[in-house]
Each structure stands twice: as C-alpha cells, then as structure tokens.
Amino acid sequence: MSVKFKAQAKRNPQDITLPERYYAASVADGEVDLDILAEQIAYECTVTESDCYAVLLSLERNIINSLNQGRIVKLGRLGNFQIGISSSGVDTPEEVNATLITKSRVLFRPGKRLKQLLLVLSYKKAS
Fold first, then answer.
1. Mean pLDDT, the chain cut into blocks of 10 residues (127 residues total)
2. If you ran DSSP here, which 8-state letter would residue 7 be given?
C-alpha cells in the first residue's frame, strides 16, 4: 500500500509577491471510524463487536477527561496525548496569566512503532 499525494500550490507567507511553488500534499484514501475499528478488532480476537465499540467509546471519553485535567495520557506503544498552549508574551513572570493564552491544541507523540512506520512508507501520486 502507498500513501497518495497531490501537487498543491502555496505562496510564500513571508513574501506573497513571489510566484506560487508546488509541494506534495497527502491525500486521504478513505477513513476508518469507531464502528469499523470495533468490527476489525472483533474479527481479530474473541471479543464481540459491541464490546469493542464500548471500550473504544470509553477510551475516548477517558482520554478527553484526563486531558481536561491537564494530564498526559500514555497509551503504551501507541503514543502519548497532551495539551499544548500558545500565549502572548509579556516582560515579567508575574504578568503571565490565563488571559494571555491564545490557542490550545492536542499534541500527539507517536510511539516507536508509529515512528518506524514513517521510515518505511511508500508514496504514489494520486491521479
């Protein structure tokens, strides 16, 4: 299997007068949702599809709850989730407060096996 990509035109944000350049951009080839994951997992083991689905929904709920409490969620070999934030800068540490936060995001740090996947991917230009 190969990851599909297409050519995508982009302008230089530092100098928009320059001509566009073309870059490779990945193209999704379908999607897998919780229902499909539950079905696939059930097929590979002795757990029923509905039990797998319930576990996946519970995992999602617990990841969200833990991130909301500021915890790092470690999913073993899969990787880790953590909240990251961006803020405006000020001159002294005493001036730093929650109103300076401009953006938050979920960070994912892949485990070793996912990182290794990136080293062996093959690519195919989408038609």
1. 90 90 91 92 93 95 96 95 95 94 96 94 93
2. E
CA angle 91, 94, 99 (to 5 degrees): 85
Q: Which residues pair with 3 in a beta bridge?
A: 123
Distance CA 37, CA 41 (A): 6
pLDDT score of 53: 93
Contacts of residue 107, defined as CB under 8 A and 6 or more positions apart, other chains included, come to: 81, 82, 83, 84
Strands (E), the chain: 3-10, 21-27, 73-74, 79-87, 101-110, 123-125
- pTM equals 0.79
